[in-house]
What does this fold into?
Amino acid sequence: MRLISDIAQKYKVNLVMAGHSHCYERSVPLTFQPPDGAKALTMKADESVDGKFTRDKDFDGVNNTKPNGIIYVVSGAGGAGLYPIDPHSINDPDSFMIKSDFSTHSFSSLDIDEKKLTFKQISQDGNVIDQFVVTK
It folds into this structure.
């Protein structure tokens, strides 16, 4: 995602959803910039991409619903065996992740109208694991 983050940021993308990891994870809103002096993002031989993340820690999805950056969601807890997540990664003050769950299968629900997106992650027994609102 780092290689296309400049394009997503240019067009004011607020939410990127992915799967693969068998869990639920949500990041704080993030922006990613190339290193100082670089004009573009490039992948190195080891497949890493140099640059700097900026975290929007003011967005809470309830009172502040306009993220300064992109929220990344992994919604991969739909049915296969769940992957454990290091709980310390959420509590680390430098963490990108604000919410995660690998304890139950779940799915994502999005309600979208003209200027508002309401996201909910719902467990297999119907409980809301996480929710937030994004407004334009």
DSSP finds two helices and nine strands in the chain. The helical segments are 5-10, 87-91. The chain has one domain: 2-105.
